[in-house]
């Protein structure tokens, strides 16, 4: 399974905790005080004015590398 913009942040970090640091490095806040941020990845990326396609490409590359 790969990450898409409609996925809830909470679901992403629950299923793929290894993506927390990459998401933070890309500017996507996914944790606050140890608790997941609510909303979809697309919503959070839009709030920050970031490039959703770039973020999806990078996050999915992390997952692909782990599965190869």
Write the layout of secondary structure elements.
Elements: H1 9-15, H2 20-25, E1 31-32, E2 35-36, H3 41-48, H4 52-67
Antiparallel strand pairs: 1-2
Give a verbal description of the structure.
The radius of gyration is 11 Å and the shape is globular. The protein has helices spanning 9-15, 20-25, 41-48, 52-67, and strands at residues 31-32, 35-36. Helices cover 54% and strands 6% of the residues. The model has no long low-confidence stretch (mean pLDDT 90). Strand 1 and strand 2 (35-36) form a beta hairpin. It has four helices and two strands. Strands 1-2 form a two-stranded antiparallel ribbon. It has 68 residues and is mostly helical. It has one domain.
What's this, in brief?
This protein has 68 residues and is mainly α. Helix content is 54%, strand content 6%.
Q: Could you tell me the number of beta strands?
A: 2
If you compute it from the alpha carbons, what radius of gyration comes out, rounded to the nearest whole angstrom?
A: 11 Å
Secondary-structure element pattern, one letter each: HHEEHH
Helix percentage range: 40-55%
